[in-house]
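Sample 1 of the test manifest.
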Amino acid sequence: MPPENTVSELRFRPAWDAALALADGTIFRGRGFGAPVDADGEVVFTTSMTGYQEICTDPSFAGQIVCMTYPLIGNYGVNSADAESRRPWISGLIVRELCELPSNWRSEGTLDAYLLENQIPGIYGIDTRALTRHIRTSGDIRGVLVRNLDGISDEELIARAQNATLPGDWDVVGFVGHDALQHFGDGNGPHIVVVDCGVKLNIIQSLIDRGAVVTVVPYGTPYVDIEALNPDGIVVSPGPGDPKNLDSGLDVVRATLEADVPYFGICLGHQLLARAIGADTGKLKFGHRGGNHPVKDLRTGAVSITAQNHGFYVDGSTLPVSTDWEVAIVNLNDQSVEGLRHATLPIISVQFHPEASPGPWDSGTLFDNFLDMVRARKAA
Amino acid sequence: MTDEIRSVLVLGSGPIVIGQAAEFDYAGTQACRALREEGIRTILVNSNPATIMTDEDIADAVYIEPLKPEVIRRIIQRERPDGLLPTLGGQTGLNLAVEVAELGILARYGVKLLGTQLSAIKRAEDRALFKQMLEEIGEPAVESAIVHSIEEAREFTKIVPLPLVIRPAFTLGGTGGGVATTPDELDRIVASGLNASPIHQILLERSLTGWKEIEYEVMRDSVDTCITICNMENFDPMGVHTGDSIVVAPSQTLSDYEYQMLRSSALKIIRALEIEGGCNIQYALDPDSFAYSVIEVNPRVSRSSALASKATGYPIARLAAKIAIGKTLDELRNAVTQKTTAAFEPALDYAVVKIPRWPFDKFSRADRTINTQMKATGEVMAVDRSFEGALQKAVRSLESQAKDLAWVDPKWTPQQIEGLIRRPNDQRLWAIMAALRNGISVDDIHDWSKIDEWFLEKLLGLVEMEREIAGTEGELDPELLWAAKRAAFSDRQIANLQGKTEQAVRDYRVGLGMTPVYKMVDTCAGEFEASTPYFYSTYELEDEAAPIEGERALVIGSGPIRIGQGIEFDYCSVHASRALHDAGVASIMINSNPETVSTDFDASDRLYFEPLDAESVDSVIKHERPDGEGPGPPVIVQFGGQTAINLAEPLTDRGAEILGSSQDTIDLAEDRYRFEAFLRGLGIPQPNGAAVTTLADAEAVADRIGYPVLVRPSYVLGGRAMEVVYSSEQLHRYIRNATTMTDDRPVLVDKYLLGKEVEVDAICDGTDVLIPGIMEHIERAGVHSGDSFAVYPGIRLFPAEIETIVDYTTRIALEIGALGLINIQYVIHGGRLFVLEVNPRSSRTVPFLSKVTGVPMVRLATNIMLGKTLADQGYQGGLWPRQPLVAVKAPVFSMAKLRGVEVNLGPEMKSTGEVMGIDRNFDSAFYKALIGAGLSLPPRGSILISLADEDKSESLEMISSLVRQGYKLYATEGTAAMIERAGMPVQMVTKRIGRGKPDIVDIILMGVVDGVINTPGPADKEILDGLEIRRAAVERGIPCITSIDTARAMVAAMERATEVYTVQPITEYRKTGTGY
């Protein structure tokens, strides 16, 4: 049997100038880095060992204070090519050790300077494993990262943590979204419209690499406007927050299904598909965040390792009882729904991130599958 | 799916040699257990008795037999297994499987090759096929050419310029390979590489010196699910064998893109090879672009996969075995969490550092340069939440002259330091530290070494911290101490910097409440609850290893595998742990060696992966006190070799309770003055001699007792720096070179008695002494016991001698206060028995003797330490009944890997491993030991003989036997004259190297002879001449016998026993049968 774990409070505590307070009254103290501002949000952890810059710039992390479970962060610096969107979106970053002297041929600066420039605070030097194990028990939790501790009592810290906003509490998709249409790629490949709930650049890149031409439209764009773009296929992107807040998106999904346009939902786009066909979504105790999550394709039996980043899930028991819809992919650890597929129509969706960045590239073939469906539909 | 597999033959990896060490005992043991869990009848064969895998309870049938195709054929014929699993037996297992398959043996008996198909083995191992496969799947290979001659190699330099890497095909640890930077070097290394390769083929390739070296451990199952277990980054860039590199896991300087790019490549390769199991893939990555090259693939479980298993907690070998019989990753569980599937990739939340352990402390004349030919005998691993912490703990685990990173050779000049950094060698890490202390910049060191600046900056940080500590007057600022402990500075290191005592630093630190916490290695970075009891120390907030309540005991392991302290002690540690567990006492293991069974997470009730220094062990003991007070769990030091024994004193000083023989008993055996008085009191003789602390005293003692004398430092491990000295001049030289001779570390000068050497292991409970067996050495005293052929039972001993041995052993064990195991070495000289050495601990013969006699020696000893008697356990005192068998333990050397090392046997131990030959009679057992050790001469051919004068008269019978067996003889001047006088045909070759063609070295290098018997006389000149002869034999890869006793026994056994030997499970030999 595993021993019951004890938090042995050391009599010696290292000096600190920043704190992370959780809504359940736990306070972790460390040193601040990045911007000297405070931040609140949902405290979550990711087990990705590499890819901190991609994580910072993944819009799905908006509103979250992210704990990296790997202790050595910043080793290879930051660079302009690894950003997954126009800026970092995390509310704050929690690391065990921050590398001040990065080394990599592409490094353009330190993570510290990067977060400072983008007005995002960080905290280092805390026992991130203790925090992770805490979250494993408490669940993803409201918290506050405080860089300016002057005169703030513990009670006040905790009160502020309890008042922190969760991504589900506000229009976080609107926050990360782009206002204007954007076009990518050229040539006469299939035209894919990506509904931007918080899209990552590598989704667009993955489509372009396979010969597609991409138009990114803001979340909230009415279907008529999308239709006017003559899409050969529609991708609904990942994004932050609670899918239940996104009723307007359901219309676009339903209209797409009705129009018989090939649909590919990724993460939030998967959850919106599920809601559009009548299923319910729920919140995980603590999210799946990392690059080592095994999923199994129930049709082929193929197992792949996926990149994941989601705090909400599709409740499999609420899916319509219909031969049209099948759970195509399941998570091997908790058997949760990882992918949906329509029996006859060109509709697929996955809970994980085939675009990786960060994470394993195993599922890039899903973009091929989708574009195959698009091309087949176009040829028909 | 495959035809149903109901029984599997698992191939072991044979003796421990450089490039193939304890990791395959770990892999094989896990595999056998995994197969039996699935209800598979498991048959195991290995020639190495010092392994857990050859324990009778690991497989359904265990064969300790030579790993040769004929033996495998006979086992297959007898057992009729459905499958053969070779991928857990290292390169030996893989090569043997190829041989067996190509001989048609598998086809004839309908045995399926499991894990990796023959075609995949060939595509991974044969350079041409490998390159072709990479081209087919679009993965970049290094520009290279396959060559079969020196001429072709020279031709290639016109296309790809020097420096070039030379890699021989099908060799262990890259034997015979290297990097050539000049045309001369090219000729030399190509020649030795062609020779080392059994198919006389080498690969020449562009040197990627300076590129990052990255490894991936990958697994694949029969339904094509592929996962990576771990990636690793070498501290040393390309150009150093990964076994000789400092390695960190996971990679530190790779961005996600680079990480995934190589990961994707690795999955592509394992798919192309269709491996079902584990595989190791090595990459060179350009530090300035995304360019990379695939360097090497091991289509099997490897040393790196053992490291990856310990680094991540993911049991690769166990899963590989299950996959081999058709299980799929997704249906298998993660043994660590028990809840999640095995089809996942471990996430680490710590850094792991591995450092190789090299044998240069024992081979002072060896070339310390490291390159693509592996030289390390073992390795250590450490885990921490920072790179600095893992690195410094790993350094502390090495147990080398350099106790920590502060070590410098006082003789180093700035030029030498630069040289050591430019050219990889075992001291490079310390040279870098020295350079940084001298103010050399990270940029300069990077230019010299190409080591990534990330690592160098970390080292610079340590130097800065050293400075800050040294510059502090009085007590350290707690913040600084905290930072230092987080970087794993030892108390001792801090004390040395501050000019304080270790105890003062410890008291201050503990007074601040600054003690380590222990965190779990759980495969998932804390995401899921896990039940593995596998912990490492760190200085942080939360502790996860609540002290074990109830009865428990700590077993101290033996640290890295090195010459003199090998896998035998890991065997003992594992058995001690199991005995504790079975007695209802929770076993707590502490060790630093990632290759071993003892550091498998299920080998004990709790594992601490920690350095075996007093501070780390004491911290664990103090931590394991449920009430935070008292002495903590009692400690067993008897099984971890000299490493553990050396901790008895400091741990006793820190208040620990030692189980079994006390610190006083240990000291009595090691302190020359006390020991002499002790034996005198018992009336038991030992060779004349004394402990001395000056040259004058040494001379006086030697004059009094007469030359030759045996000189050695006190407190030695594996006979380090032990020498037989024949003259006053030699004595002078020895004393001059003996670096440390102090009052508490004197040098021992003893009469060297030539005679039969006998070794005994016994178990003592304070009342009775059980002697499982007596072993007699083939070589006369003077050859280190670890390098001797040992025979059970002592077949040349007279009953009266046996009686005396039993009497002395019993009295010594009782009187010295032994509780548990004791090892005694004797010499019979002039009809009298003398005591050479008493070790109140387990010895390297314990596994051999346990297996041969069936007496569970470690279990009995452990239970005695827990308070039981031999009688309680159903045993009684005296000599255990002689078994109806003969077993011979043969030493195995790794000389081909170590340039410049003397091959000649002497009192200093040189072997790295051992094999056992067991049979009904001596000749067959001895013959099997010879083939197992790779020392047997080919059935016919030519033998070169060059004997010392004093050996000549005793050699005539041996020489005429060789003639009768049809060998053609070559001999040097004196020996040839002697053979001619006896009327036998012989071809004379001159011993005067370079004068007269062909000389003796030419004869060997040109491949004229198939074996060498060369016994050097005592004179320095003869030893030096012989050195070249023996090195030539080693480089040529032919047997070289340097002891006349070995040679005579060998020739006699070959004449009588060739091919007539038994092959049966080990247990059957002990059954009374036809006997002998």
